[in-house]
Write a structure and sequence with these properties.
Blueprint lengths: L1 E6 L4 H8 L7 E6 L9 H10 L2 E6 L13 H22 L2 E7 L22 H16 L3 E6 L2 E2 L6 H11 L2 E5 L3 E2 L2 E2 H16 L8 E4 L6 E2 H12 L4 E5 L19 H7 L6 H12 L1
Helix pairs in contact: 1-6, 2-3, 3-4, 5-7, 7-9
The structure holds NADP nicotinamide-adenine-dinucleotide phosphate.
Length: about 290
């Protein structure tokens, strides 16, 4: 049996990957959560990686509390940046390929064209900064790494914007949602499928592992306001949703106003088709129902 280590298996993306492991029948997945592997514990990572001959590490663990990170910088840095130093180092020593996930928050959101992988990063939040440092650390330590930057992730697992809007929409008659931040929602099941595809095509040698940074979100464009209207329509919720400006909803961490990701690289290199965000949202809400 061949081995893959899936770190952060109980998060949104980790859970979605777990659903798709049958697509890699020759692989045994060793899965960890923060309780079984805290990635800030370097010895624990080394011990686990030493225990089997892993060919791939998929890291879905991250400090994802964007606002909390502003006042919890040290821990956010340890999880999102420093841990990647160690994962990268040990992976390189053992010849393990790493697939890691990053964020649109590495950009400042001042672009007016979709961000390509080589556009300059300029995070404006602690979360974005620590995720960018994690990207650099991993690629420096283990060049055999793929980093997938994604945006506005949701799933039927875990807490996320879709579930929050369903809850608020059923509890309230009125809701104000930001309309001047533009991005693309990403169904974590689709991103999980892309990750599985990258491994599958590497093992069957149709598309050899091509390290580097890739952008992945669903297709299309939305504001949080548009996203909310679609969530409510699909879920059959009647709630009066009003568009509001970012300045009227202050948060500790600033968000990029524009975070569209250009996905040409992954579509071309990995020959994948990406669903439109509305199609995937319907699938997710159908599962939630
Ligand atoms: N969510 C988004 O909108 C979004 C957008 C762009 C990019 N991303 C990136 O996509 C990836 C997956 O995100 P997600 O939404 O699936 O995240 P998630 O649901 O928050 O899952 C992250 C997991 O990491 C775990 N974790 C936190 N600290 C850890 C530690 N020290 N050691 C081990 N595990 C730890 C968390 O455990 P606890 O829950 O117990 O803390 C959680 O299970 C992340 O890299 C994230 O930065 C997310």
């Amino acid at each position: 049996m061949r081995h893959i280590l899936l770190i952060g298996a109980d998060g949104q993306l980790g859970n979605e990957i777990m659903q798709q492991t049958p697509a890699l029948p020759n692989f045994n997945f060793t899965t960890t959560t923060i309780d079984t592997l805290d990635i800030t514990n370097q010895k624990a990572i080394s011990d686990l990686v030493d225990s089997k001959k892993f060919e791939y590490i998929i890291n879905c663990a991250a400090y994802t509390a964007v606002d909390k990170a502003e006042s919890d910088k040290d821990l956010a840095y340890e999880v999102n940046a420093n841990a990647l130093n160690h994962i990268g180092e040990i992976a390189r020593l053992k010849g393990i390929k790493v697939i890691h996930v990053s964020t649109d928050y590495v950009f400042d959101g001042k672009s007016y064209v979709p961000y390509t992988e080589d556009m300059p990063t300029k995070p404006t939040s602690v979360y974005g900064q620590t995720k960018r440092e994690g990207e650099i650390a991993l690629l420096n330590k283990n060049p055999q790494s793929i980093i997938l930057r994604t945006s506005w992730l949701y799933s039927s697992y875990g807490a996320n914007f879709v579930k929050t809007m369903i809850k608020l929409g059923t509890e309230r008659e009125q809701l104000g949602v930001i309309f001047d931040q533009i991005g693309t929602p990403t169904y974590a099941a689709d991103l999980a499928g892309a990750i599985i595809h990258m491994i599958k095509t590497d093992i069957d040698n149709t598309i050899p592992f091509a390290p580097g940074i890739y952008h992945y979100s669903n297709e299309g464009v939305a504001s949080w306001y548009d996203f909310t209207l679609a969530i409510h329509k699909i879920a059959g919720i009647t709630c009066n949703v009003n568009p509001i400006e970012t300045k009227d909803y202050p948060t500790p961490a600033p968000r990029p106003l524009y975070s569209l990701l250009n996905k040409s690289k992954i579509k071309k290199n990995y020959k994948i088709q990406i669903p439109h965000w509305l199609t995937s949202l319907e699938k997710c809400i159908h599962i939630l129902k």
